[in-house]
Design goal:
By secondary structure, the chain is mainly alpha-helical. It has two domains: 175 residues, no CATH class; 51 residues, no CATH class. 46% of the residues lie in helices and 4% in strands. The protein contains eleven helices and four strands. A four-stranded antiparallel beta sheet has the order 1-2-3-4, with no helix packed on it. A hairpin with a 5-residue loop joins strand 1 and strand 2. Helix 1 packs across helix 7 and helix 3 runs antiparallel to helix 7. The chain is globular. The termini are far apart.
């Protein structure tokens, strides 16, 4: 079995598994289901999809959504002048899932969005409902996006990609040559230990510093933040008509 055939089988399996949860898609909200926004700067939805997910999702996951191979996805991205693809860390999907949802809201139907996220319908429904008014921020609607599949770029698409690549190269070649700072790198900076010399003892005997970190019994505690809204917590199952 060739490498290409293995990836096609893997993609088909993932899509089949998505089909298992497709029956649960009815629990997801739709709102007025308008037509999706058109991305007219790109040759088609396929190229817009690859452009928007290039730095956030692995080639393998995008290929599974499109029903093709990672090599085909890579070729689409490179035809538009995108930098070499780097497999994103797992934390991109753990911390950046809202960006992934937002970027694909007008590109993918729910079934394919679930494949892209690696979620089931119940988890997505919970996130839309409970994650800081996400459904409201998305407009209280899910565009009626047709299923997106890979097709070989035609002559018009190839010509448009060459134009996009020329613009990207002329403006961003220098930046692409510079090692990028990973997303969420600031989190690692926040949790680094604060030097001991930054501490001072308060009248009540607690050693603290200007960053709010404390030392008690010789043990250093990391900085903690409180969120202004109520935190997420398990919710009782509700009727699908709640939307």
């Amino acid at each position: 079995m060739t490498f290409r055939e293995r990836w096609l089988m893997t993609g088909a399996l993932l899509l089949a598994l998505t089909g298992v949860c497709a029956g649960e898609v009815h629990i997801l909200p739709t709102g007025s289901s308008p037509a999706p926004i058109e991305f007219k700067r790109f040759p088609d939805r396929l190229h817009a999809f690859v452009w928007r997910n290039w730095e956030m999702v692995s080639l393998e996951r995008m290929a599974a959504v499109l029903g093709t191979t990672p090599e085909k996805v890579r070729a689409v991205g490179e035809s538009m002048g995108l930098p070499p693809h780097r497999t994103p860390p797992a934390e991109y999907q753990q911390r950046g899932y809202i960006t992934i949802i937002r970027r694909n809201w007008h590109l993918l139907p729910y079934e394919q969005l679930l494949t892209l996220l690696g979620w089931d319908a119940e988890k997505l429904a919970f996130t839309l409902r409970e994650d800081d008014f996400l459904w409201v921020k998305l407009g209280n609607l899910k565009p009626a996006c047709p299923t997106l599949r890979y097709t070989e770029p035609n002559e018009a698409a190839t010509k448009r990609c060459a134009q996009i690549k020329a613009v990207v190269t002329s403006h961003f070649a220098d930046q692409f040559a510079t090692p990028p700072v990973p997303r969420f790198d600031f989190v690692r900076n926040l949790v680094r230990s604060v030097p001991v010399r930054a501490y001072h003892e308060t009248p009540d005997g607690v050693t603290t510093n200007t960053f709010g970190a404390t030392r008690e019994g010789g043990q250093q505690r990391r900085i903690r933040f409180l969120y202004s809204q109520r935190g997420l917590r398990p919710q009782p199952k509700r009727s699908p008509n709640m939307w």
